[in-house]
Design brief:
Elements: H1 14-21, E1 33-37, E2 40-46, E3 52-57, E4 60-68, E5 71-76, E6 84-90, E7 93-97, H2 109-117, H3 123-126, E8 128-132, E9 135-141, E10 147-152, E11 165-166, E12 172-178, E13 185-191, E14 197-200, E15 216-217, H4 228-236, E16 246-249, H5 251-254, H6 260-274, E17 278-281, E18 285-286, E19 299-303, H7 310-322, E20 326-329
Parallel strand pairs: 16-17, 17-20
Antiparallel strand pairs: 1-2, 2-5, 3-4, 3-6, 4-5, 6-7, 8-9, 9-12, 10-13, 11-12, 13-14, 13-15, 18-19
């Protein structure tokens, strides 16, 4: 690798750096990460409170100098895009990690096109928190936001170093956080046009903390479905002429103390004995107020964590299907709670 100290770094506007260093800029990736310069590359990383910061490029250790309010920068003389890690040294230790700002967007143009047109039919795959490429891809639709940051237990609930970028005119904000794993708790910090920061749950979260805690939780399914026989039979059934008898229940009060898995053990023989063809669950989407029986939804894509994890609900549904019992889920968009951390006035 050539001498990096001979390379000149571009001088950036102080107002721009101020916005980036405070997580208020709509395109932090245009400043942070790695960018071409004459003779090589400039690497910028935001590490608030760090005493020293280095870019580790292969066997080479390049010290980054502090330029502005927690932003460090340095040059690397290389012909090809460097693959690097950031080492940050603090008073109480050091931290070596990948840099999320060196990664390309994790949401594609087709997804953004369909979202803009309001006809994306698998939003949970494009938005929310999805495990990808050794980390978590965060994406949220907040078209009225001035800036969006990810906060969570992995950054001390401070989003300054995890500001997201807006993807053109789509209203979608995106950030890849390397090395983050299942179980991480998070929310989104949103800067409104009125200049106020508000903290919100993920509208596309697939899991959440057990109420009264409210954070969204990164999750990934490993469940293997075994209901193909039932699905094939359903596809051949004439729904207009076939008998249908529905048993409706509320999971939390049908029999106290059950979770999704133990409910399967008790509900299935009961329903089969009575001769019902289907069960209908009153809302099991995440909701803050238990006495509402689920009719005040805050997480339309997250089954309530009161009774287990999403894969536990998959097990319950799978067991019902394997026993010839169809499943209907109540969906309740009309009862919309006003909790300030939830979906109301989401982006101001």
């Amino acid at each position: 690798m050539a001498n990096s100290s001979a390379l000149s770094l571009p001088v950036l506007d102080s107002d721009l750096l101020d916005k980036v260093s405070n997580g208020k800029y709509h395109d932090p990736h245009s400043v942070l990460g790695v960018h071409p310069i004459d003779g090589g590359w400039v690497i910028r990383a935001i590490r608030p409170l760090a005493k020293q910061v280095f870019a580790i490029v292969g066997k080479t250790k390049v010290e980054l100098t502090h330029s502005f309010n927690g932003i460090f920068e340095g040059a690397v003389a290389a012909k090809s895009l460097p693959d690097y890690r950031i080492q940050a040294i603090y008073e109480d230790g050091e931290w070596l990690s990948d840099d999320g700002y060196r990664h390309p967007p994790t949401i594609g143009e087709i997804d953004l096109h369909l979202i803009r047109e309001g006809r994306h039919e698998e939003l949970w795959r494009a938005l929310g928190a999805n495990i990808k490429n050794g980390g978590v891809a965060f994406a949220v639709w907040a078209p009225n936001a001035e800036a969006v940051r990810v906060v969570g237990d992995f950054n001390g609930w401070s989003g300054i170093a995890h500001a997201m970028r807006v993807m053109g005119s789509s209203g979608v904000w995106e950030l890849f956080v390397p090395e983050l794993e299942v179980g991480a708790k998070y929310k989104f910090e949103i800067l409104t046009k009125a200049g106020k920061w508000i903290t919100k749950i993920d509208p596309l979260a697939k899991f959440a903390e057990i109420p009264p805690q409210t954070a969204s939780v990164v999750t990934e399914s490993s469940y293997q479905w075994k209901d193909r026989t039932w699905l094939n039979a359903r596809a051949k059934r004439d729904v207009l002429t076939s008998p249908m008898s529905i048993y409706e229940l509320h999971v939390g009060s049908w029999r106290n103390g059950l979770n999704y898995r133990t409910l399967a053990e008790e509900l299935i023989p009961y329903v089969k004995e009575l001769g019902f063809t289907h069960v209908e669950f009153m809302p099991i989407m995440e909701h803050p107020y238990a006495p509402s029986w689920g009719y005040q939804v805050t997480g339309y894509f997250a089954p309530t964590s009161r009774f287990g994890k999403p894969d536990d609900l998959r097990y319950l549904i799978d067991q019902l299907h394997q026993n010839g019992i169809g499943v209907i889920l109540d969906w309740v968009p009309a009862h919309f709670p006003k909790d300030e951390w939830a979906l109301g006035r989401f982006d101001g």
